[in-house]
Write a structure and sequence with these properties.
The protein has a domain at 501-601. It is built from 20 helices and ten strands. The strands form two sheets. Strands 2, 3, 4, 5, 6 and 7 form a six-stranded antiparallel β-sheet that branches. A four-stranded antiparallel β-sheet has the order 1-10-9-8, with no helix packed on it. It is of the alpha+beta class. It is 63% helix and 11% strand. It starts with a helix and ends in a 5-residue tail after the last helix.
Length: 636
């Protein structure tokens, strides 16, 4: 009965979304206040109906209702409660329901949001219904994919969807701006916090997925340039550009048409990511769907949403003229450079992701695009962007003094030189690009500190006066500095990757392996049985010389029902260096494959991402956004 209620609520939500899409626009055309006001009630009704639908499917998972096909395919009665709940969005049908639920949650009274909801609700009901029954009812479910049975993966999809779908609000306001022919500072103050909140959620989601890949898959990496990873990275890059360009619209009343285009493209890339994951065109650990009908349906949604909005942009964008003029060397000029480089970087990722698919579609050879392409195209675009980050934030609006700014960055130059020389000496002239990467991260930190010192007039005022200025500084300024500092941490973690050491050994219990001055002694192996899987638990004693450093327990897990194995890596970190050990498969002689790494600064990659997201949250807490949101209620 509860399942039928959820299904009915989903159908009813479709009709409410249709009404939300049409009636407010009719009201706007006829200047009928009642019809225009209907959008808010429709949005609330749609949200309540989707709460019922989500609750019904969640209840089926929690109680292990195996009369529901979706539950049979993705859960089992023996699973912990966390993985029963996470099973809901671990599959195609459930994840799409989560998508429209988040869409309704962030949508508000926006007609364009209703149109997006109509498309995805139709997609769910026609091709991806999560409430289909299983006949006959099996006594037990197949269980959740073992690689997804992890806390990180339980929270990774919701954060990604909050990011993806959150950008739909900026998209809706961009379409509304094109229809009305008006973009002003108030519009930017409305769009920017939505974009920033979505960017924060997407940052956390990407970081969770990256860290899961690092500690679960056992290969020691944190980014593979997998097409589905790229699908999440592209809207993040353009979302970063959107946040920065909206600053120019708000402060200087220029870059209006470009900012509207960025809002459209950012959400469009979120939709393209949905197509890649759910169309069946990819073979990936992340890709859910294999039914071609779903791909055709989503392709139609892409054509309608992206094609329609870009057509509207082509017709109306010329009317969005900016009023503020500025010199090339200025804060505006720095933000234009920021947008140019970010957009080009996003374009290289898009080409590298879609080109193999296009080539295959036209009958060409099957190719894969990996690290060499992205390292040689993406990285060179990022370096000048990161170099310009410090000076750009210190330039004045309208016309800046670049030589003067560079003089005030003397401490950043000194810090970068000190770190670069120290890294060169410590690694005995190790990979020069890695050394330069660490120097670049230090330059970014120095730039953040110099910009803060200038805002606080730290060296020109008494300490008490500087403290007073610090208390008056807008939270958005603190958030910007925190986000830039987090980016520097991530850059340092990435730059240090070439300094890692690796060893792969085939050893039996009692044997040893060597890693960068450490001795790894494989002392024992214990086999344990749990309700749904078998655990091989190794004990590895790590020594440096005669000193015992750690006792680590990498595991190999076998899931008999699915005949699948996973790794549970053992990681010991002190914040500067990770010791990483993964247990592989045994050979017929009883020896086990042991993969071990020493990884300097790798944890800074995810620490930096969390600091970036925290910076965004601090900016969102700025009182100016709350005032702007309460004062500005736009219809779309």
């Amino acid at each position: 009965m509860i399942v039928e209620l959820g299904h009915f609520a989903l159908v009813l939500a479709l009709f409410v979304a249709l009404a939300q899409s049409v009636l407010p626009l009719v009201g706007a055309a006829r200047e009928h206040a009642g019809l225009m006001g209907f959008a808010r009630a429709a949005a609330l009704a749609q949200l309540l109906l989707l709460v019922v639908a989500m609750g019904a499917l969640m209840e089926a998972y929690v109680v292990s209702d195996f009369s529901v096909l979706n539950v049979v395919q993705n859960s089992a009665s023996t699973k912990p409660l966390l993985y029963k709940v996470a099973g809901l969005w671990s599959n195609h049908e459930g994840s799409m329901l989560l998508w429209v639920f988040v869409l309704a949650l962030v949508g508000g009274a926006l007609a364009v949001q209703g149109m997006i909801g109509v498309g995805f609700l139709l997609f769910i009901l026609l091709t991806s219904n999560p409430f289909l029954r299983a006949l006959p009812v099996p006594p037990e479910g197949r269980g959740l994919n073992p690689v997804l049975q992890d806390p990180g993966l339980a929270f990774h999809p919701p954060f990604l969807y909050l990011g993806y779908v959150g950008f739909s609000v900026a998209f809706s306001f961009a379409v509304a701006a094109l229809i009305e022919g008006r973009v002003d500072a108030a519009w930017a103050r409305w769009v920017r916090p939505w974009s920033l909140a979505s960017w924060c959620a997407l940052t956390v989601g990407i970081a969770l997925g990256s860290y899961w890949s690092y500690y679960t898959l056992g290969w020691g990496g944190w980014w593979f340039w997998d097409p589905v990873e790229n699908a999440s990275l592209m809207p993040w890059i353009l979302g970063t550009a959107l946040i920065h360009s909206s600053i120019v619209v708000e402060k200087r009343d220029t870059m209006k048409a470009w900012t509207v285009l960025l809002a459209i493209l950012t959400f469009s890339l979120s939709l393209i990511g949905t197509f890649l994951v759910r169309s069946g065109v990819l073979s990936s650990v992340h890709a859910f769907a294999t039914d071609p009908r779903r791909g055709v349906f989503i392709l139609g949604l892409l054509a309608a949403a992206i094609g329609g909005s870009l057509t509207l942009y082509a017709l109306r964008a010329p009317s969005l003229r900016g009023g503020g003029l500025f010199a090339p060397v200025s804060r505006e000029g720095a933000l234009v450079l920021n947008n140019l480089l970010l957009s080009c970087a996003c374009g290289t990722v898009l080409v590298g992701t879609l080109y193999p698919l296009f080539l295959d579609a036209v009958g060409g050879p099957k190719i894969s695009v990996g690290f060499p392409f992205f390292n040689e195209t993406f990285v060179p675009l990022m370096v000048p962007l990161l170099v310009a980050l410090g000076p750009g934030a210190m330039l004045a609006w309208k016309r800046g003094d670049l030589p003067g700014v560079l003089q005030r960055l003397w401490a950043a130059f000194a810090l970068a030189a000190l770190v670069g020389l120290g890294a060169f000496w410590a690694t005995h002239g190790g990979p020069i690009l890695a050394v330069l990467g660490l120097a670049l991260a230090a330059w970014m930190v120095g730039g953040v500190l110099a910009e803060l010192a200038e805002r606080l007039r730290l060296f020109r005022l008494p300490l008490a006066a500087s403290w007073g200025r610090a208390r008056q500084l807008p939270r958005a300024a603190w958030g910007m500095s925190l986000a830039h500092f987090g980016l520097a941490l991530t850059v340092a973690g990435i730059a240090a990757s070439p300094f890692e050491h690796e060893t792969i050994a085939l050893i039996r219990p009692g044997g040893t392996a060597e890693l960068a001055g450490y001795t790894l002694e494989f002392t024992s192996l214990v086999r344990r049985q749990t309700p749904d899987h078998l655990i091989d638990d190794a004990t590895i004693v790590v020594r440096r010389g005669n000193e015992q450093v750690a006792v680590m327990h990498p595991q190999r897990r076998l899931f008999p029902q699915l005949q699948q194995t996973t790794s549970e890596t053992a990681i010991r970190t002190n914040g500067l260096v990770d010791l990483y050990i993964a247990l592989g498969d045994p050979d017929p002689s009883g020896a086990w494959t042991l993969r071990a790494y020493e990884k300097p600064l790798v944890s800074w990659i995810w620490l930096g991402a969390l600091v970036m997201a925290a910076g965004g949250v601090v900016s969102l807490s700025d009182r100016r956004w709350r005032v702007g949101l309460s004062a500005r209620r736009r219809r779309a």
